[in-house]
Design a protein that fits this description.
- It contains 15 helices and 13 strands.
- With 390 residues, it is α/β, with parallel strands linked by helices.
- The strands form two sheets. The chain has a seven-stranded parallel β-sheet, with helices on both faces. Strands 10-9-8-11-12-13 form a six-stranded parallel β-sheet, with helices on both faces.
- Strand 6, helix 7 and strand 7 form a beta-alpha-beta unit.
- Helix 4 packs parallel to helix 6 and helix 8 crosses helix 13.
- It starts with 11 loop residues before the first strand and ends with a helix.
Length: 390
């Protein structure tokens, strides 16, 4: 992939994701970076492959200062391998897969048309490996292509995404993961040209939260990997010792009915408040005194950055290198072993019981997280852009 000298007035940057508006960290990251790049004078276009279901879609502002495009009007058929004689003789499935491939080629050409309009020095940032399957069909001549994985190496390895990262990102100019620890693991796994780039802070308040409310907050999608069921298990252990505290769960998702039923089965309905999605995360956090996260898997969780920027001490599972890079146990938060709900409950109990501990960890978090300021991280991106252009 050849590079050319950038023209004055910024670069053309395409951020290509599975979709443009799904609830979750990748969407938050994409639109945050689009704004930051736009503020630096670049011309940004966010491209999603497919739409998402209404119940997991976030409402985007009407006045975005950059273009947003979704390639498909409906989600494309899933890819399936035709195995053995039975698969080869399955004529309807063969026709369906042939139609899928033809549709992918057509959408790849649509991407090519967008990319060809880019000025010299342009870049394509692919945030998710599924989206790379379409970018690989497009003409990226003259553009630098950056592939990203927003999850830990271990999480990728446990799913089909690990093999797909190795296959689809093999020829990109740079593969970016979220921590240096994960970059080392990918290099050992045989990937070359791997680097790390942390997520930036979505906001940086001037003062920390007052931490006066007897509220533990959780923010995130109501999905299996986010471990809200495990958080409820931990809350069941510690809530009886703190009858004047409540757990506020901010988020929405397909798991909500099952999670509400689990909450009821644990006898927690009086101490758990289901808040739904919020457009004011900082306001939600400033109304709490402790932040809890029980994810089974994470990359570089933006919600932890947000909580620490709000000045809240965090209690979380040590589920990924990104968590360990953000939180220093005993200094700005408390980490429990993955899946150990009793240990997580103990950390919540300690923070709820000790105002001095909450204030000390929260104030340290408020200062420590500034190393992920939007200006610092955007500068790192600019340095990478210049390096790839050489």
């Amino acid at each position: 992939m050849s590079q050319q000298t950038a023209t004055p007035g910024g670069r053309d940057i395409f951020i290509v994701s599975n979709n443009v508006d799904e609830l979750g960290g990748v969407t938050t990251w994409s639109h945050q970076m689009a704004r930051l790049f736009t503020d630096r004078g670049h011309r940004v276009h966010i491209v999603g492959i497919a739409p998402v279901a209404e119940e997991i879609r976030q409402k985007l502002p009407q006045d975005l200062p950059y273009d947003v495009t979704t390639l498909y009007e409906e989600h494309p058929p899933a890819a399936r391998r035709l195995r053995g004689i039975k698969g080869r003789l399955n004529a309807p499935e063969r026709r369906r897969q042939a139609a899928r491939r033809a549709g992918m080629r057509a959408k790849g050409e649509q991407l090519s048309e967008l990319f060809r309009a880019a000025r010299p020095g342009g870049l394509v940032i692919v945030t998710q490996v599924w989206a790379m399957e379409w970018v690989a069909l497009a003409d990226t001549k003259g553009l630098s292509v950056i592939g990203m994985s927003h999850e830990s190496f271990e999480a990728s390895k446990k799913s089909t995404r690990g093999e797909r990262v190795r296959r689809h990102y093999a020829e990109v100019d740079r593969l970016l993961v979220l921590t240096a620890e994960d970059a080392d693991l990918w290099i050992r796994a045989g990937m070359e040209n791997v680097g790390s780039m942390p997520n930036p802070l979505p906001f940086m308040p001037e003062t920390p939260a007052p931490r006066t409310e007897k509220v533990v907050a959780s923010v995130g999608r109501l999905a299996f990997e986010k471990g809200v069921d495990l958080l409820l298990d931990a809350w069941a252990d510690t809530a009886p010792r703190h009858p004047d505290w409540v757990l506020r769960i901010y988020g929405a998702g397909l798991e909500e009915p099952a999670l509400r039923a689990h909450c009821t089965s644990l006898g927690l309905d009086d101490s758990v408040e289901w808040m739904g999605s919020t457009g004011d995360v900082l306001g939600a956090l400033r109304g709490a005194s402790v932040f809890a996260q029980a994810s089974r898997a994470e990359g570089f969780p933006i919600t932890l950055l947000e909580a620490m920027a709000a000045g809240l001490p965090v209690a979380a599972f040590d589920c990924a290198p990104g968590v360990r890079e953000i939180v220093t146990h005993g200094e700005d938060g408390l980490l429990a072993r993955l899946g150990n709900t009793m240990e997580l409950a103990g950390h919540l109990d300690a923070l709820m019981s000790d105002r001095e501990l909450r204030d000390r960890l929260g104030d340290t978090a408020f200062q420590a997280v500034k190393r992920y300021s939007s200006a610092e991280i955007t500068d790192r991106w600019e340095t990478l852009f210049s390096f790839l252009e050489r």
